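Write out the bound-state structure for iron/sulfur cluster.
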Amino acid sequence: MSNSIPEIRDLDFMLVIGSNTTEAHPIIGMEMKIARQRGARLIVADPRKIWLTEYADLHLQLKPGTDVWLINAMAKVIIDEDLVDKDFIKTHTEGWPELKANLAKFNLPEAEQATGLPAEVIRAAAIEYATTRKAAIYYTLGITEHAHGSDNIFSLANLVMMTGHLGVRHGGLNSLRGQNNVQGATDAGATPLYYTGFQSAEDPAVRAKFEKAWATDLPATIGLNLNAIMEGVKEGNVKALYVMGEDILISEPNTNHLEKGVKELEFLIHQDIFMNETTKYASVVFPAACFAEKDGVFTNTDRRVQRVRKAVNPPGNARPDCQILADFARASGYAMPDYKDAGEIYAEIASLAPRFAGISHERLDRTPMGIQWPCTSPEHEGTAYMHKDGPVKGKGTFVVTNFRPSVEMPNREYPFSLATGRVLYHYNSGTQTRRDSGTMDKVGECQIEVHEEDAAGLGLKDGDMVKIVSRRGGIKARVWISGRVQKGCVWMPLHFVDAAINKLTIDAGDPLAGTAEYKVCAVNLLPVKPGAERAERSELVESRPVLGA
Amino acid sequence: MADTFTITVDGKPVEAHAGEMVLRAAQRAGVHIPTLCDDKRLEPAGACRACLVEIDGQRRLQPSCAWKVAPNQNIKTQETSKRVQRHQDVLVSLYMADHKLDDEGLPVETCNGNGLREWAQECQTLSLDPVEAPRAARPGDKNPYITFQPELCVLCARCTRYCDEVEAVNAITLTGRGSETTIGTAGMRGLLDTSCELCGGCIDTCPTGALVEQKAIEILPHQIERKVRTTCNYCGVGCQMDLNVAKVDGIEQVVRVTSPPPGETVNDGNLCIKGRFAYDFIHHKDRITEPMIRKPDGKLHGVSWDEALKFAAEGMKKVQQRHGPKALGFISSARCTGEENYLMSKVARAAFKTGNVHSCAAT
Ligand code: SF4
Ligand code: SF4
Ligand code: FES
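---
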């Protein structure tokens, strides 16, 4: 996030695009609701009638995968109405003439065609955003997990910069990070592109600095991103994996194909708190401590570094991941220092990354609100909102974006467009929350949301079992006529092993970010004959909770 | 009017900010005033009358939680005003007449504490005849987390106001009339059949323990050995939470999760269902407890750490020698800490000379 969570409640305008905030980031959703109750305007752009739309002033229910059309058409309206922030563009950006020229083709009548939204509505939303000072945009997986995810984000960034909603409190472009420490994992350098603190892995000076600090020579080229590693596993070029804290066979797309690759691996180390699908093929299993059993930091979505503290001992012989990794490195012949605790590891990170130089465990222990990076010295108070003195990288570049349809469009054989996502009561692959009795009572089995007319066309009723097939695999789920999806679209949650949804999805990655296209793929629905499948539902699930009713 | 000025509380100067309530200024200065219906996150209700103070120029006692500060205001609390103390003695006794008492005649302790009990201990309570008007519960409510104990409710409406003003789902409301008023849902349905998102904010805000978490209902506050402030391990909001540790069968366990006081952390004292309730996994029997290696029989066998580490290191080294560093992949996790991710990148790059390191779910 360029801005901060505590700013939300004082906003006057929020555009939430492709973010099921109340379910995926409940407390941010709560802040949005507080803002709404205080009179802020809320516009939600989402193909599905998500929960938050009930609090919204306006729901832009666009066709899936047409975000670029919507955003660029809004940008064109802002130009046509002469609402751009000329000063900001002049002082802080580059590439404006090219962008302006390209936007000319995103006219409202065609946008209406493409997105299915009335031209007047797009126009009104654009004008309101451009003319409200305290206006912020929020987005998440809904728009990044597309093969054209980067285009979506560039388009939004264009919109934010051309209206000067950047570098101010109560504004900005805010990506809501999914998992607890997505931000922190990248910050720390668990990415092929960067060493810790976003220092380019291709920069020889950076490499030299780390070679000195780590007292060894380091690879001269950047490595593979996650998508490419998984591709390598499938194709047999990657022959050994060390997997920490993830179930790659559930959370990665197109798992059927991946599973074959994983089976063929020569060596697989799996380090986790529970056994899961990946463990089945592990050569070694390291039992890890969970968050309540170890020390360290998580960095949340508004760049806030906060402490994780040990409350209890790990079970049996399980150990904190830090200790396992350090011991493993030593067993492999690398002289990993003998860290006395996680604080000492953090001190090493801070000494190597200027962005975190002012942060330490001691300081965090004195700061209940956490510290938002950049924080460059012990005196630096942290950064509530970024780009205060103009974009961090000097000039913000307008990037020309064009509409590209999703890689896989529905056709006659696979007539439905499937999207996937989270529900409030479960968390990613569900190994934690699915073990919790209460959360299982709320949403006890995998459901697929289907439009009323589509269901009628297939002779399906609410609660029927259905087989969902894509070009890559098939799974079963129960039909839910939720009234939340558009005609021609279906939606399923990510969380269930027994309906491993990533068997269906496509692994066409965004060329820039290496993010898989979880969001849109084409499927068909085949009714399962009555009797072939017995309903197994607990008494509580029987009265299905209507999420968001 | 100046933004900041001075008021007098019990004869001492106290700094006050224009527009705030007397109670806030007093609390900031460390002055204790009993409250039941006050919660920083909610609009002042002035409903419970516990916080009444004497204000110069006002004939009646006034609720400090709902009375704005003004320059040179002179306030007296129970410390310096007999009238306020007498009011409190009577009021707390009235509340107790309609409350479950323990053997010593004090409001009962609950796993969530009991603010009425604390307040009663500060007062000279009178013995009044108990009110015979039981409040209705929701007999059919099978929700797994939140229990309502109507005999402990003081009708301060914090829970219902929280449900409306903060969580904004309006699942619970005050229902019934007069002595039958209670905390209900539409049609007295169970919470699972309402718009309730099971955030548990009502438990957190309830001052008397009328609303409590079902799971560890028998563990009272004094049995909690410590509360450890940490960061939620679910989503990217990064809510702060307190892990409450108590001994269960002689072993220290996390028995409940509570939220930090409002105003202190990024989540302002709020949590969602996952942060507040989904902690069973910590002590789940399926946790992996031993290192294991796959032996020639194709099965995983428990071994010592030394053996597992050696086996793992040799296995990785062998692949590295045979196929080069580019044939290795190190998948780190957005679920793990910053330090762990840093070490994973160091292991990949420094120990195995490969840049093939990425965290799963890189969004
Ligand atoms: S249940 Fe608790 S919070 Fe709700 S009205 Fe009763 S005492 Fe107040
Ligand atoms: S309590 Fe809920 S909203 Fe807060 S970090 Fe945890 S999962 Fe996210
Ligand atoms: S706390 Fe002031 S009236 Fe209840």
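---
The helical segments of chain B are 22-28, 82-97, 115-121, 158-165, 201-205, 273-277, 305-323, 338-351.
Chain B has a mean pLDDT of 89.
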